[in-house]
């Protein structure tokens, strides 16, 4: 292995892998990205990100042009040319149950192992059930050709979509799960720049590294469900969950982040990761984590249902026109995997409303999974004639909207702010009825079909 300037492969070039590959090229390494999805590889090879991630297109363009970054569908190319292989393949929830589907990961490991022609370090980055790294090391030991050594390390990733490039180049911390000094040395070399900038490094064993990632997502999900549980109490007691979160957040032991109440968490990671963690814990005979995480999952489902139910309550009869603002699972992303916004839009549509969805970036992806909804190209078209507005993904342009302008477009000025991001006082002053999550209603009572006790 070339330890001065190792060559790198990144296997699986989705949200994580494409970002990681481009950032390693930015750090000065020669990188080959591998994926079995031909279309994705063609776009990446042309220097174009197959999804929206700020700053990624620029890195891809520059480094594919310089030749430092290449893409291929042939894992053999990676096996023959790289010293370090990062595994970034998808680990989705399996179709049958709550556990992670590791078929893609095992296929990649076996494919890589069989084609190896040189010693290497195989570094897992995908989020996996604890114990996977050890099983992978054993499998590689069985399948790599004689006299070739393939060491295994685990280097979990904590990047957030929409901040992927920034989070990769300037991470909060680095975790190196290793079982040999040489693996640690190689990882230190790869991350020399962030380490020199003072990023803390946690060197640990393989199992702790794998579990740390699942635990981090489990904890973030727990914070969101906790605050959503407080939102439900706040609504019933006449309290304000935003003020409550600010009070909690001033305690440095708690912290303000991930205490934004609303329609709950979604995306390709938090939901499937808490289920996979619960399933793995149960398989290991640890019973506390499944109980806790199931409650988190249920509270998250309830956060969505509460807003969907309120929307139906406020709809003025069958065929009501509903404007849905947002389809992505969070702003600055075109990802609609397990999106709470899209889920609510579909429920309202199924109940008979005429739903028009506007999202600045995610409409194409949303249409692929929810073709029954109508997608419009502008905020104005979504709002025109609407009898109810649902604010479900907190894109900055929605919070920045002039409520007087919006009031002139709609039929009824009634909005449910599922993300607590619009200035409810300003909207109420412009004639709107504003329903938020865990906050008192602002403005006149909407013409609800059901009597409003607060009205
Ligand atoms: N999306 C994110 O922000 C983050 C994701 N993760 C984890 O990273 C992993 C990947 O997640 P995403 O990038 O979001 O998924 P993704 O679905 O966007 O990408 C996964 C890619 O792996 C490819 N793939 C699957 N099996 C393969 C094989 N055998 N050979 C070659 N390519 C293969 C797929 O074609 C796909 O392009 C997951 O374990 C996820 O939990 C971790 C941190 C952040
Ligand atoms: O493993 C992963 O893939 C990643 O999962 C999450 O990142 P991401 O899914 O990109 O999005 P987040 O910013 O964490 O948001 C997740 C969901 O929680 C929701 N959320 C977040 C914060 C909050 O206070 N309230 C809330 O409802 C968001 O709207 C979103 O639907 C983690 O934050 C990353 O550290 C991790 O690497």
UniProtKB/TrEMBL annotation:
It catalyses: UDP-alpha-D-glucose + 2 NAD(+) + H2O = UDP-alpha-D-glucuronate + 2 NADH + 3 H(+). GO terms for biological process: polysaccharide biosynthetic process; UDP-glucuronate biosynthetic process. The active site is at 269 (nucleophile). SUPFAM superfamilies: 6-phosphogluconate dehydrogenase C-terminal domain-like, NAD(P)-binding Rossmann-fold domains, UDP-glucose/GDP-mannose dehydrogenase C-terminal domain. Keywords: NAD, Oxidoreductase. Belongs to the UDP-glucose/GDP-mannose dehydrogenase family. This is UDP-glucose 6-dehydrogenase.
